[in-house]
Amino acid sequence: MVSQRKAGAFRALRQRLIFPGFSAYQVESMQRFASSDASLATLGASKIPREKEASMNVSPAFQAFAQEAPQHQQAWSEAVQALGAASALDDKTAALAYLAVMAAARLDSGLPFHVKMAKMHGATRDEVISAVLIGLPAVGNVVTASLPAVLEAYDEE
Asked: Cα separations (Å) of 30 from 43, 76, 136, 147?
């Protein structure tokens, strides 16, 4: 049987090999798994109270996905991270581009989380607004519907 310590070291090595260029926060954020303790969520290797998880603006839909289909969520997360690693964009530009796509596709439930990611990578409030509105010529004013949630998420401390 592999010891917990060796298993942890293997996971860390695997993450560095599979997810080069990603911060520990990004890897942890994408590898969410439900804990057997209903009061705790697992974020990477860290256990966090469910109340704190809510403040991270992870959508209820994504939480349900992680809790009810952890193998699918892990496979999806690995694909997302591999695609991100293949991108030539820096983290801030990628986060802003992702917000633009989410607004255009009307994927509002994930906006608060991804606004926090953009802000974490140095995006200003004006850059976030511009990213959301960049789709105006292509998809019309539907992107403006995202602004209230985006601004609220950005302005949270």
From this structure: 8, 9, 29, 24
